[in-house]
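Class, carefully examine what follows:
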Amino acid sequence: GLLMRELATKFDHVLVDTPAATYGADAMVIAARCASAIVIARRNNSRVDLLQELVSSFAGSHVKLGGVVMNEF
């Protein structure tokens, strides 16, 4: 809370990297503290059904989904 508020006063945008959502609830907890999220998917690695489930989980929260990015890395 306090760190994010301090950073938000100093920068236009603050990106917070989290562990993959499939490895636990950390990503959702952090997204809730940040109020918005961008989902990053890995080409030929991320499963569409799990991505859909993750995106749907944002609908039941106050977290704004900024979008989904497909990464080839």
